[in-house]
Amino acid sequence: MPAMRPVLLMTRPEAASRAFVEALQAAGAADFDPVISPLIEIVPEGPLPDLSDVSAVILTSASAVGAFTALGGRARGPAYCVGPSTARAAKAAGFDVRATCRDAENLVARVSGTHHGGPILHMRGEHARGAVVERLAHAGLETAEAVIYRQPERPLSPQGCAALAGDRVVVAPVFSPRTGDILARNGAGAPLLVAALSEAVAKSLAPLHSRAVAVAARPDQPAMLTCTLDLLVRAGHLETGQDGL
Fold first, then answer.
1. CA dist list (Å): 218 to 57, 87, 137, 180, 227
2. What's the CATH code, domain 7-40+154-239?
3. CATH class given for the domain over 43-150
4. Using CB atoms within 10 A as the burial measure, which of 78, 127, 155, 200 is most buried?
């Protein structure tokens, strides 16, 4: 009997999930069945911030760029970004990307050391980590924030529930502690391999029974692609009985 293909369970918002699946396929991964079941929805919410007196903006997710443009915002001035996907979205929207940082820690250090202009605005979602505004203010920079999108939870789809309750190996890339918290509440009976963006994400998944949790070498999409590709290979070994875990 031929081995069953592993399931790739994607829990990011729809567009980001599909883009990640396409990136995996472009990298050569093909022997998996994707199940897209977003656990968080991105809902743009005003008011649109006024950038006329802002010397630079901080963008810590591509969702912030999408929400800004969906609300009718027109890009102007410099932007400090976290992650290459955020930087690409910001550049496409018309911002002058001054720095692409690894994470919030790296961003705070970069902005604190290089920004000598006027006020900075962090445009973000209602759920955020890193205390970016507080830390920059502590460093003496005039910094404010604008919440421009909500992130309501969504239930795991019937297909996602079936995957976690089934016999096939499931590979689940998880990109945020909040998504990890939501996923962990669902439980898992299937053999589950998790690719976590960071140690904080891995910690959020502790209540979830999993065969393995691998943390990406860096908190960015390229490292998550590498981590997920490795787990897909390991999942294939599990399905064929070559359990190297």
1. 24, 16, 26, 17, 10
2. 3.40.50.10090
3. alpha beta
4. 78
Is pLDDT of 243 > 70?
A: no
Mention every residue, 6+ apart, whose C-beta is less than 8 A from residue 79.
Answer: 56, 57, 58, 59, 90, 95, 96, 97, 98
Read off the tokens for 189: 């009976």
**pLDDT tens digits, residue range 166-213?**
999 999 999 999 999 999 998 888 999 999 999 999 999 988 866 789
pTM for this prediction: 0.84
CA-CA distance, 180 to 2, in Å (whole number)? 32
Sequence ranges of the domains in the chain: 7-40+154-239, 43-150
Contact 102, 82 (CB under 8 A): yes
Handedness of CA 37, 182, 211, 245 (dihedral sign): positive
